[in-house]
Design goal:
It is a single chain. This protein has a 7-stranded mixed β-sheet. The protein has 257 residues and is an alpha/beta fold. The protein is globular. The relative contact order is 0.19. The protein contains 10 helices and 9 strands.
C-alpha cells in the first residue's frame, strides 16, 4: 500500500485490468513493504487484532493471508490458524514465515472452499473483498465454514476513498472498478479493485447470513506519529479502510439444527 500522500497520484495512473493483481510477480516487494508500512503495520493489522480480541484456542481462517503477517499475529495470540490465498508466491513467503504452525492452501475466494461446514470459529478477511466484483459467492462460502456463534472480521478499502479521488467521480451507488499502479521498493505493479457503496456491502453480508455487529473507522497506532510524521496526520484525519465484525447467529437451544 502506498503512502497516503502518494495515493491520489497513484490512482491517477492507468493499469491493465488483464494483468492486474498478479501478486506472484511482486510477492517479495509487496511483502517487504507491508511488513512495516504505516497503513499495514500501524493501522490495518492492529485494528483487525483489536476487533478479534481474545482468540486463544479459536480455529481461525485467514482468507487472503498473503505472506502471513496477520496469521502470525493470531497464532502468537493462541489461535489455531489456517491460511488461504490465490497467490502461490505469497503462500511460499507465508510458509517461510510460519513453518508448520499454520496450514496453508492455494485457494481463490471466487471458488468453493476446501473445508467442511462450520469448520472455523472465526474468519478474518484482511483487505481482500475489494478484489471481487460480486461478494455473494465468496461470502456464502465464508458463512458456510463459520460455526454458529462465530464471526467474520473484514477490512476493505473505504468506499469514500475511490469515490472522492477520481475526477470525474463515479456513480457512488454503483459498483465500479478502479485501476492504478502500486509502486514499492522501486517496483511498479498494476492493480484493480472494486468499489461498492456502503449499503451494498452491508446488504451482501446480511444476504449471506451474517449479522452486522460492528462498523469501525479506527485511528492508527499512536506510536506511528513519530515514526511517520509526514503521513500520520493524513491517516488520522482521512478515511482509508473500513472494518466490519459480522456474527453468525448462534443456534437456539434445543433447535437441533
Amino acid at each position: 500500500m502506498e503512502r497516503l500522500t502518494d495515493l491520489p497520484e497513484v490512482l491517477a495512473q492507468p493499469a491493465d485490468p488483464i494483468a492486474a493483481n498478479d501478486y506472484d510477480s511482486f510477492a517479495e516487494a509487496y511483502s517487504a513493504e507491508n511488513e512495516n508500512s504505516l497503513v499495514n503495520a500501524y493501522y490495518e493489522r492492529p485494528a483487525m487484532l483489536a476487533l478479534a480480541g481474545d482468540v486463544a484456542g479459536r480455529q481461525i481462517l485467514d482468507a487472503g493471508c498473503g505472506s502471513g503477517p496477520l496469521s502470525a499475529a493470531l497464532r502468537d495470540r493462541g489461535a489455531v490458524v489456517t491460511g488461504i490465498d490465490a497467490s502461490t508466491g505469497m503462500l511460499a513467503l507465508a510458509k517461510r514465515r510460519l513453518g508448520d504452525d499454520v496450514a496453508l492452501h492455494a485457494v481463490d475466494l471466487s471458488d468453493p472452499l476446501p473445508f467442511g461446514d462450520d469448520a472455523f470459529d472465526d474468519v478474518v478477511a484482511s483487505l481482500v473483498l475489494h478484489y471481487l466484483e460480486d461478494w455473494g459467492p465468496a461470502l456464502a462460502e465464508l458463512r458456510r465454514v463459520t460455526r454458529p456463534g462465530g464471526r467474520l472480521i473484514a477490512s476493505v478499502e473505504h468506499p469514500f476513498v475511490a469515490y472522492t479521488i477520481k475526477d470525474p467521480r463515479p456513480d457512488y451507488f454503483g459498483t465500479t472498478s478502479y485501476t492504478f499502479d502500486w509502486t514499492f521498493n522501486g517496483q511498479s505493479a498494476p492493480m484493480r479493485f472494486w468499489r461498492k457503496p456502503l449499503h451494498a456491502m452491508t446488504d451482501a453480508f446480511t444476504t449471506a447470513g451474517f449479522r452486522l455487529s460492528v462498523i469501525s473507522e479506527p485511528q492508527p497506532d499512536p506510536a506511528a506519529r513519530e515514526l511517520f510524521p509526514d503521513d500520520f496526520h493524513a491517516l488520522s484525519t482521512k478515511p482509508c479502510f473500513l472494518f466490519f465484525v459480522l456474527e453468525v447467529p448462534a443456534l437456539a437451544a434445543g433447535s437441533g439444527e
